[in-house]
Amino acid sequence: MTLIGAGVPRPDAADKVRGEARFVDDLAFPGMLHARVIRSPIPHGRILRVDLSRVATHPRVHCTVTPDDVPGENVVHVIYDDQPALASDVVRYVGEPVALLAAEDRESAREAETLARVDYEALPAVSDPLEALRPGAPVVAVPAAAEGRDESPNLFNRMRLVKGDVKRGFAEADVIVEGEYRTGYQEHAYLETQGAIAVPEEQGAITIYGSLQCPFYVQGAVAKVLGLPLAKVRVVQTATGGAFGGKEDVPSQVASLAALLAWKARRAVKLVYDREEDVLTTSKRHPSVVRYKSGAKKDGTLTAIEVDFVYNAGAYQTLSSAVLWRGLLTAAGPYRVPNVGIDGRSVATHTVPNGAFRGFGSPQVIFAHESQMDSLAERLGMDRLEIRRRNALRVGDETACGQKLKESVGVLETIERARELSRWEDRLRAVAAFNASHPHRRRGVGVSSVLYGVGLGAKSPFLDKAGAYLKLEADGSVTLAVGTVEMGQGLTAALSQIACDALGIRIDRLQLTPVDTTRVPDSGPTVASRGTLMSGLAVLDAVKKLRARILDASNGLGIPEEEIPARLNEIARSFFLRNLDPAVEGWAHAEPVDWDPETGLGNPYFVYSYATHVAEVEVDLTTGEISLEDCVAVHDSGKILNQGTASGQVEGGIVQGLGFAVTEEIAEKDGRLKVKGFTTYRIPTIRDAPPSPTVEFVEALYSPGPFGAKGLGEVPLMAAHAAIARAIAHAIGKAVSAYPLSPERVRQALAS
Ligand code: MTE
Ligand code: MOS
């Protein structure tokens, strides 16, 4: 097992560092046209007239597309099919696509866009989810199949979880704390904006090249909008410059729009969003309002929690039901809670549809549950790490939804290691000493523990599968294809290591091919931190099959088993000469899950990852500015396959968490987002990152996982933001209840 855990350099790194990786905008096809999307300027209105006559007569415009041109169904297929590809009668958010154009070059396309005339009758809009739930609020458009519609015309989904007896639990409590927590938008801020190229092929087929996370979602969406069989739609992922969940559902829209134009033009069409367009019109993290009540005994033991949370879903469902579901199942944190009542709602408003973002509906409730743990500790005069330690889940315990944990529960270890590595007690003393000697500055320390259900779980168990294709070339090198994508998180490295380690070959003897829907069966989406786990298992399955054939062949050649790696080229040559089949397919699916929507109880996930972060911040009392001085991050994601990429995930997650909690903000007024690309959206830079964070992994192995691995990708952000927020609260000695903790908010809190 020499390649597992080692810091093998990422096979995809050199090209990216040299600028040689080819992103979608680097590609061109013969006769390729450039697309622009004509979008709604208002949050809600009836379309009275779409006049594209001046667009169409622009000398460089090749064609335009309106809903009448849609050959299949006019929808962006995600979960509920409520979102039209092009709005035909009503627009429901600023930026909603209304019509399309394709021109010979990008500049002409931009020019022609300004020639479009669309008349609207403005209708009343609602942008606040609580307002949208009030009787008489303007109605968005909730599909008939939605889970909440009977209660309110704007309620997309309502999900509940009830365990034990909450009333009794609070009666048994010695202290009860309550709080309301709000979080705002977070934009993914991937460096590469959304983009796709659609290329019409022979025999009525089409190929999509795109920056995306879920090739099979895009395949389904394009097939639906064009009215084609799935077999006529091929999707190839291009090098993807970050995604963070933002390329889970949105590429289905981008690719569908490009495909509509390409289909009509019978030419290749490129659609790449501008930054401003991307930030304004694509999904973000759901803004939230979370109300929380927690009870504990004198010794800190939790007796009950009651949670009510509302997520602003935007104008269409997209992924909101899945995002809400994860919020529901994360709201209790990594703790034993005997009596639980959780009620979550996702609400339609006339704003951009929100979707997946690293953590997928969990960071919002984590801010709340970690604030509550600190409030309980404070009321009990108990150490904040200690109250977490006492309640932390262990093997054999039941989660809030009644799932008995059979193995691989490392949360306690993450708490204990975080205490040691952060020198918790010393640090608290040092911070107090600092504060005593600095009249205008305050330091604070915060902690946050989290759990994360890996994979899609019982919300869509049919998606937790993966395929792999593995071929022994005639010279002993190996070609590998999988159906989950590299988007920066290090999948290429992890999967190459798994395959090469098991075959005993060097990393540079294996080529992982670009993800292509024609190479492997539907492997589900690259989300929910499932990539390494699920594709890793599929790769191992393929390796097992190939190794059996290699063993056969080597027996025939009289090569002893231990010499196979060194003589693989000889064996491969014999495959070729003896007409043996050198290719295999691997397949994997997750362990069974189950969940009861009536009670919210069951075994929703096959395994959980855990983490504990400790953050130290300094607050400037005059300006309210915050600097993140240090962070200690301890994760249990089972076996770590590559220390380098795993640490990179954690360091990146800390910075993204800092953005969520402190710097990133999008104001919204009357359904209009007040944001101009990165000019006004402030993501943290390297200067804001903690100078030398401590990252450690405790490896509570998951026996069905590849080498015992679970999932890591999203967890660092989930743990980081709340530790930072709690450190800020500790520093200023005031409650903090809304993100982002901008200088203005911090000054307000100080003044309160
Ligand atoms: N890291 C980088 N560099 N870029 C990304 O887009 N996406 C995150 C996380 N880390 C992301 C990332 C999200 S949202 C997910 S779901 C996981 O990576 C997916 O990767 P995995 O399943 O391989 O862990
Ligand atoms: Mo990640 S939000 O599950 O793409």
Explain the overall architecture.
The chain is α+β, with helices and mostly antiparallel strands and 752 residues long. It folds into three domains: 24-123 and 194-272, Aldehyde Oxidoreductase, domain 3 (Alpha-Beta Complex), CATH 3.90.1170; 288-457 and 597-751, Aldehyde Oxidoreductase, domain 4 (2-Layer Sandwich); 465-589, 2-Layer Sandwich (Aldehyde Oxidoreductase, domain 4). The protein is 30% helix and 24% strand.
- For this structure, the CATH topology of the largest domain is Aldehyde Oxidoreductase, domain 4
Shape: globular
How much helical structure, as a percent, in the residues?
25-40%
Number of helices: 20
CA distance, first residue to last residue: 58 Å
Major sheet summary line: 7 strands, mixed
Structural class: alpha+beta
Mean pLDDT: 97
Provide a concise account of the structure shown:
With 752 residues, the protein is an alpha+beta fold.
Map the helices and strands.
Elements: H1 13-18, E1 33-39, E2 45-51, H2 53-56, E3 61-65, E4 90-91, E5 97-103, H3 106-113, E6 117-122, H4 129-132, E7 155-163, H5 166-172, E8 175-183, E9 195-200, E10 206-210, H6 215-226, E11 233-237, H7 250-265, E12 269-272, H8 275-281, E13 288-296, E14 302-314, H9 320-330, E15 339-348, H10 363-380, H11 384-391, H12 411-421, H13 424-437, E16 441-453, E17 465-472, E18 478-482, H14 491-503, E19 510-512, H15 531-557, H16 568-577, E20 583-589, E21 594-596, E22 601-603, E23 608-620, E24 626-636, H17 643-663, E25 667-669, E26 672-674, H18 677-680, E27 694-697, H19 715-732, H20 743-751
The structure holds ligand MTE and dioxothiomolybdenum(VI) ion.
